[in-house]
TrEMBL record:
Subcellular localization(s) per the UniProt record: Membrane
Start and end residues of each Very-long-chain aldehyde decarbonylase CER1-like C-terminal domain: 451-612
One annotated GO molecular function: oxidoreductase activity
Family, per entry: Belongs to the sterol desaturase family.
Transmembrane segments: 182-210, 325-345
Protein known as: Protein ECERIFERUM 1-like
Superkingdom of source: Eukaryota
Biological process per Gene Ontology, one example term: lipid biosynthetic process
GO cellular component, one term: membrane
This protein's encoding gene: LOC111282066
The entry's keywords: Membrane, Transmembrane, Transmembrane helix
Domain Fatty acid hydroxylase span(s) in chain numbering: 133-272
Statement: the UniProt record of this protein carries the keyword Membrane: yes
Length: 617
């Protein structure tokens, strides 16, 4: 929102929310009806192509967003280091409004303007007119409109909304108040309307021109330099006819320079070129890929989880993972991604963060949770994890924490396999078990006298049971064999019990906790997971806490996507453990059966600003 919102700031269909697309439905249905009734030969191709073209624009923008986020995470050629936060993602979540507006105006134009129908495929004279009108009136008028929008009156009411984003993303280019976007549309419509009224319009020229606008807009806001030096060496005047991402980035950091649309020639004519434009361009081109200090190694979960990654759909990534019905519409893409990752996938970087001068990165193993459960994939998955560890070690990372099933005991012995294979590793492997256990223990409400321990028994559950017993809390274990196994140790004292009922109000549950077992709990029971994955919520009359996690400190930068099902700015304990390991400089592994002192790692996490995640009841 602008500093002091002016008239026509909000988009007219804002109250419709996600149902805003119904605005285009009448025309889409009518165009499909015309195609079926008249056939391909008699139907107006210029009318039929509007909706498919809008879909390609959605795809075009999404490709830019995904690629830009990938490149800025890697760091090579990145222009601005400032991070992006959830506030910016929310502000830019309506980037598709301008596509809906364009579609609406295209359909209305086709209805109202007689010459706006039955365009030919191509006309050379129309292409020449479009080029001349863009270089002349469009670029010239945009330059002065842009300067006017930076006058304090218009800036505070309209353009400040766009400039709220210092570190830009491709879709930042179309984040404007409604009135401002209408003004831009009228500018870009000059060549198309001129072609229409002069009878020189064609489908290819209109599509190419609008695609050019999208391409240049996205490129100018992508926050990494991608225009190579040789382009300007071959044709030096191009410097005045095409801007670069670093050129426009300066406009977002300096505000009073580099006003040009796509052609800097008018900045040169009127003396508004930023003096550091060339230097920033050169330095951005030379910038190398960033080497992380701490790596969090995770993997894909469900087949739809690829869309919830930071590199996927920004609006989904910024919210806790939840199934969306509309993702069924792109099931062919989903199936293709599963097959592709199965045969050709390589570990990739998904996210970068910064905390206390340490560079953090999240890497993703291109395998879904189902792959980890297939015996035939065990060796393949282990090889991918091993390659990632060696790559991180080569890049000089200090710590790598194993997330989700990458530290599965049956798969690799909680990471011990890699230490055995590579005893001279400089990087320290962390499975985060001690902090996960500490988070669960400190989530138990004060005054609790007894808890029930259910699910698969792991070193985390053992540590939790031991810590609670030593605090004087009774731990009930329903499995007699495990009870006898634990009872053999005198460390548990008399606080380990074999219950004859399920009256406990606090259940600490892990992997393998079944829906059937949930039904045995009393109304109002609180389930606290110690597993990597959350249990399925069958009981609506009970409370479910999140999987072991902590709230990130405000000083953690560039955190604008949710980690799987966790809330915003909340990180899994296994991920936090790696960060704490690096911040404290602990030069030892924590994997296999090795565990840190729970008190030590818990206190360290609190000292560095991490906070417990409150229980929602």
């Amino acid at each position: 929102m602008a500093t002091n919102p002016g008239v026509l700031t909000n988009w007219p269909w804002k109250p419709l929310g996600n149902f805003k697309y119904v605005i285009l439905a009448p025309w889409v249905v009518h165009s499909a009806y015309c195609l079926m009734c008249k056939g391909e030969k008699e139907a107006d191709l210029s009318y039929l192509i509007i909706f498919p073209f809008l879909l390609t624009r959605f795809l075009h923008n999404q490709i830019w967003v995904s690629y830009s986020r990938y490149r800025t995470a890697k760091g090579n050629n990145r222009i601005v280091d400032k991070g992006i936060e959830f506030e910016q993602v929310d502000r830019e979540s309506n980037w598709d409004d301008q596509i809906i507006l364009n579609g609406l105006l295209f359909y209305l134009g086709h209805m109202i303007i007689p010459k706006a129908s039955h365009w030919p495929i191509w006309r050379t004279d129309g292409a020449i007119i479009t080029i001349l009108l863009h270089v002349g009136p469009v670029e010239f008028l945009y330059y002065w409109l842009h300067r006017a929008l930076h006058h304090h009156y218009l800036y505070s009411r309209y353009h400040s909304h766009h400039h709220s984003s210092i570190a830009t993303e491709p879709i930042t280019s179309v984040i404007h108040p409604f009135a401002e976007e209408v003004a831009y549309f009228l500018l870009f419509a000059i060549p198309i309307l001129t072609m229409t009224f002069t009878g020189t319009a064609s489908i290819v020229v209109a599509v190419v021109y609008l695609t050019y606008i999208d391409l240049m807009n996205n490129m100018g806001h992508c926050n990494f330099e991608l225009v190579p030096n040789w382009v300007f060496s071959i044709f030096p005047p191009l410097k005045y006819l095409m801007y670069t991402p670093s050129y426009h980035s300066l406009h977002h950091t300096q505000f009073r320079t580099n006003y040009a649309l796509f052609m800097p020639v008018y900045d040169y004519i009127y003396g508004t070129v930023d003096k550091s434009s060339d230097a920033l361009y050169e330095s951005s081109l030379k910038r190398q890929e960033e080497s992380p200090d701490i790596v969090y190694l995770t993997h894909l979960t469900t087949t739809n989880s690829i869309y919830h990654l930071r590199l996927g759909f920004a609006s989904l990534a910024s919210k806790p993972f939840a199934s969306k019905w509309y993702l069924m519409a792109i099931w062919p893409v989903t199936c293709w991604s599963v097959v592709f990752t199965w045969f050709y996938g390589r570990t990739f970087i998904s996210e970068r963060n910064a905390l206390d001068k340490l560079k953090l990165q999240s890497w993703v193993i291109p395998r879904y949770a189902m792959h980890y459960l297939l015996g035939k994939q065990k060796e393949v998955v282990n090889n991918l994890i091993e390659e990632a560890i060696l790559e991180a070690d080569k890049k000089g990372a200090k710590v790598l924490s194993l997330g989700l099933l990458n530290q599965d005991e049956e798969l690799n012995g909680n990471g011990k396999l890699y230490i055995q294979r590579h005893p001279k590793l400089k990087i320290k492997l962390v499975d985060g078990s001690s902090l996960a256990a500490a988070v669960v223990v400190n989530s138990i409400p004060e005054g609790t006298s007894q808890v029930l321990l259910r699910g698969k028994f792991t070193k985390v559950s053992y540590a939790i049971a031991l810590a609670l017993c030593q605090k004087g809390v009774q731990v009930a274990i329903t499995k007699e064999d495990k009870y006898k196994q634990f009872e053999q140790s005198d460390r548990f004292g008399n606080n380990l019990v074999l219950p004859d009922n399920y009256d406990q109000k606090i259940w600490v549950v892990g992997e393998g906790f079944t829906e059937r077992e949930q039904l045995k709990a009393k109304k109002g029971t609180l389930f606290i997971p110690f597993s990597q994955f959350p249990p399925k919520k069958v009981r609506k009359d009970c409370c479910f806490h999140a999987t072991p996690a902590m709230v990130a400190p405000k000083s953690l930068e560039n955190l604008h996507s949710c980690e799987n099902w966790l809330p915003r700015r909340v990180m899994s304990a296994w991920r936090v453990a790696g960060v704490i390991h690096g911040l404290e400089g602990w030069n030892v592994h924590e994997c296999g059966q090795t565990m840190f002192s729970m008190d030590k790692v818990w206190k360290a996490s609190l000292e560095h600003g991490f906070r417990p995640l409150p229980i929602s009841i």
